[in-house]
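pinging the channel bc i need a second pair of eyes. not urgent but kinda urgent?? the chain im working w is below, pasted from the shared doc
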Amino acid sequence: MPILTAAVVLVGLLCVLDLLLSFGIIRRLREQNETLKNVQRNAAAQPEIALPAGATVGAFSATTVGGAELSTADIDGTRALVGFFSPNCTPCKERMPEFIEYATGFEGKVIAIAAGNEEETADMVVRLGEVAEVIREFDGGDVHQAFGASGYPALCVVEADRTVLASGWEMSALPVPAKL
């Protein structure tokens, strides 16, 4: 009889322990659900990665890797495609081929900004140089400020009057080339 009593007490204790663990798991799942909701809300409310549509591009002046001077005056009166890329950015590496393909069909000036030093951006400069005038500039430089670039990749299509037509970090944010 004492063995049976001990077994019933042991099973009862195991059930109570299981119940406590189940409550802990449920509480943790609820916390994770709230965290996920907050992340989704914050992602929807994130600031633009570049100037939003309708904004006007600020004044800038820079030198391309080829030594040519490039300024705000060079995009006045013509449509421009501008892309900001960083060598340490995985999404940049994924979007660069799409940007290059988009740029080949783009009618207007194409400018690419490689953020980093000469050694880091060497491969990027070569690839982007096939379709764009490339500027090597660190984050926070004149061109970054003029376009409000706050992350990478930042992509913009600018109208002839320096008004941003579309911007974003994915190519889908830009208009279809035929609609330009």
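so DSSP finds four helices and seven strands in the chain. and Helices lie at 2-44, 90-104, 118-129, 142-147. — does that match what u expected or am i reading it wrong
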